[in-house]
Amino acid sequence: MITKNDVAKVFDTVLSTPGMSETVKIDLKISRKNVLLLSHIIKMSLGSKKEDSMLLESISIDSEQDLKSISEECLIKAGLVELNEKLLNLSESVKQ
After folding, report:
1. Radius of gyration from C-alpha coordinates of the chain
2. How much of the chain, in percent, has pLDDT values that exceed 90?
3. How many CA atoms does the CB half-sphere of 29 hold within 13 Å?
């Protein structure tokens, strides 16, 4: 049976293979709705308990920051920063 430690080693090996740190250009055309959803999913995933995902457990602080930057860049390019902030504030007010 494979252990949690074994899975962590596999993820670490895959993430550290040659070429994985190289930047790639992706021409991505998605709707504004999906930009909002993607941004929300990234934020939720990075803020959740990392024990829920072995892959998230094995990412570095730098990779986490890169994902946050990608999320912010997508919101900026889609012109959704202010709307996203208002939606987050609205969500927070419901939680309280």
Report:
1. 16
2. 42
3. 0
